[in-house]
């Protein structure tokens, strides 16, 4: 497969500061989270809570930039929060994020560390790859836990396959039921994105952290890339 992910030019014209990190991993094991990973995840949650202190999430640069992006494609970011802000909001309110499975926990660990939205996409859902683009409104999306498809609003930023299957709505608000990592998932595309001034450095660091953690799942083989307006498509 070539160009497993690319940014559509119309999206880049509207959001020229986007930086996307991509990790393609095969040979992963998505069983229950190991004790080693759980310990690391729990420690990270405590560290993030201590680091944030009383800082409002709206003042975290990475989250503020995502709020601004949501507004630019017509979404109220206090009604629909980016995945990273939703995670951190839950963490700061309850003090903990429950474990789900190995791959989701890995993604969430790195997401809260850098306040960046991360999606873990089962490769079986995207045999033709993903295009990040503005919706026409006739695409189909099935929410997690639902069976009846819905349609994105025209102009909404989405991840879509070439055959109009929406992998993520409102850019990084929620993944589709079809793309979520399951117990038998062995190959994934992980996306890590930011719009803020330090996005290049933060995305690069997040990729390195994720790549270092992936071997905890099995003998994973990994490819990685960083995209922006000058380099809009993955080399794999």
Considering the chains and any ligands shown, give keywords for the structure.
single chain, 236 residues, alpha+beta, four-stranded antiparallel beta sheet, 6 helices, 32% helix, 19% strand
Question: How would you summarize what this structure contains?
Answer:
By secondary structure, the chain is an alpha+beta fold. The chain has helices spanning 9-14, 35-52, 61-72, 83-94, 102-114, 199-213, and strands spanning 5-7, 19-26, 118-122, 130-134, 157-160, 166-169, 174-175, 187-194, 221-227.
Order of helices and strands: EHEHHHHEEEEEEHE
Q: Give the overall pLDDT as a whole number.
A: 95
Give the helix tally: 6
Low-confidence stretches: none
Q: How many extended strands?
A: 9
Rg:
16 Å
What structural class do you assign from the helix and strand content? alpha+beta
Percent range for β-strand residues:
15-25%
Termini separation comes to: 7 Å
């Amino acid at each position: 497969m070539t160009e497993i992910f690319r940014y559509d030019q119309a999206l880049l014209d509207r959001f020229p500061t986007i930086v996307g990190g991509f990790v393609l991993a095969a040979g992963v094991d998505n069983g229950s989270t190991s004790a080693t990973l759980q310990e690391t995840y729990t420690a990270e949650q405590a560290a993030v809570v201590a680091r944030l202190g009383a800082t409002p999430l709206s003042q975290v640069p990475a989250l503020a930039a995502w709020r601004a992006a949501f507004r630019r494609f017509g979404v109220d970011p206090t009604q629909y929060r980016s995945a990273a802000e939703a995670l951190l909001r839950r963490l700061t309110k309850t003090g903990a994020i429950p474990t789900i499975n190995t791959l989701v926990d890995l993604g969430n660990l790195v997401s809260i560390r850098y306040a960046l939205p991360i999606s873990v996409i089962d490769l079986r859902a995207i045999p033709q790859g993903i295009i990040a683009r503005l919706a026409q409104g006739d695409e189909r999306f099935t929410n997690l836990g639902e069976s009846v498809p819905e349609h994105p609003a025209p102009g909404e930023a989405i991840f879509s396959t070439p055959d109009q299957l929406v992998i993520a709505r409102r850019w990084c608000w929620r993944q589709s039921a079809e793309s979520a990592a399951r117990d038998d998932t062995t190959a994934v595309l992980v996306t890590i994105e930011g719009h803020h001034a330090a996005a290049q450095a933060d995305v690069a660091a997040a990729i390195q952290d994720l790549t270092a953690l992936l071997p905890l799942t099995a003998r994973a083989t990994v490819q990685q890339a960083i995209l922006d307006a000058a380099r809009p498509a993955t080399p794999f």
